[in-house]
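Convert to structure. Protein one:
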Amino acid sequence: MNMTTALNNALGGLTAASRGAAVVSGNIANALTPGYARRSLELATSPISGNGVRTVGVTRHQDPVLTANRRDSDANLAGASALSDFYTRFEKAVGSVDDPKSFASRLTAFENSLTTAASLPDSKVRLDQAARAARDLADSLNTASEGLRQARSDADRTIGRQVDKLNQTLQDIEELNNKIPSIQNSGGDINALLGQRQVLIDQVNELIPVNVVARDNDRVSLYSDGGLILLEGQAARFEFTTTGETKPHMTLGNNLLSGLQMNGQPVRTNGDSAQLRVGSLAAQFKIRDKLAVEAQVHLDTAARDLIERFETAGLDTTTAATDPGLFTDDGNRLNPATVTGLAARISLNSVADPDDGGDSWKLRAGLGAATPGDPGNAAQLRAFGAALQDTRPVPGGLYGTGSMRAAELAEALLSKVGADTHAAAGRKTFAKNAKLEMAKIEAERGVDTDTELQNLMQIEKTYAANARLISTVDEMMDTLLRL
């Protein structure tokens, strides 16, 4: 080995050490950066300078299986969080057992007010209190139905925003797919672009769980778990029309709500054959098209039971068979064919509402009575109270085939809502813990700052050794020149 070779080898060593220090510093700086994967410098013996060193490139270390498992936990948590938030919101709208404004509490208050009024039927104050308690009872169903409608409308609007984000993100991934090969062919470092693309794929994955397939030239293709081709050379294009303000009767089946399309073809979002199964987007469709619809049925069933109890034949002899009872469907008698959205329309019969031009004494005399009649006669008030105590089959058999009192139906409604909320919260907690565990495992296999600092110390020693070699060669050359 001559001095020129030694000098070239030492310079190559300095270059490699400098490049290695840059890689290590990048690893340490990005230890907590989302989407960043540990990088290492790949070195090889230079065939040109004898035993010198050359930099082959920078390798990005990523475990595709671990990444796929972590993305699966991300998608599960995104979907579980959306469902849990919906159930929590619905429970708040319906109210809990100890909430004085809940349907069950308002029903108890109305029942007690009838008993109180019956004990002193000539008291206008007590009759007014009974009428207002009845109105508050109807209002509690109105409020719960409106809260449910707003949650459903929010789900529809969220779908629109997520579809826009999905389209933009897929387009960005397509652009990176096209940019990465050109930069690589020109000798540039593509690792930063690979990390950026991974972050974008993670964003898509929270909306629609994806399977990543590697292609040539470091490109990737994306497929959903349900078989949708999200990206194969060209990004798919999704279409959705936001309705904004939904109504209980509006469904995907009657074409009053928009479905999802991909490249002009409909995407199945519900049922066993759904092409969207988990993830945030699937959860929002489930909320809008299934869960909110089922919840509305439960509210409408409670409203129907309440109206029908006071439309029972012979309960109020002052009314005709075609007249509405104490509770009405927006002022009309119940029509079993138009029950959908009934909870939003149920109201106290205006003839007995003192705050709506009616007379509360009609609770005592009868809704169709022309005069107050005997002020001491509490028979009609007791009959109204007994109507709430009667056991009746629940319309639709939502809570089994047995008959229930009005209070039992209210308790069953609140119990179901509470159980659904608790179950959804449990699934969210499980998904959150799974995500944290996967993130922990991924972090353990990511950048270890202790290891990187040890590598940096080794690089420092290597750099010093090569620098000493250059200094020695320089001294030797100076000696030769002085001879």
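Protein two, convert as well:
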Amino acid sequence: MLQARMEQLHDRVPPTYATLEATEDGVLLRAYDDSLDHMARFLVSLGCPFTIMQPVALIDEMRSLAEKLALQADQSRSVTITNE
């Protein structure tokens, strides 16, 4: 299963952006990004569970992104689409 996860991530993670390392606990991704917003969106786009080890500020950025997405979903739900 770890090998399959590594292959999946290798297809999605550019080597110029991050490195991937197989560990006993899963795959360790080390990214090189100065934008926490971009990093949060990138992690979500991978479509797999993850744990943020550092920087701690990325956890707050992830919460902020989740709140924005929830708001967008709520606003979308309130829109009535009619066929004309």
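The first strand starts at residue 18 and ends at 23. DSSP finds three helices and two strands in the chain.
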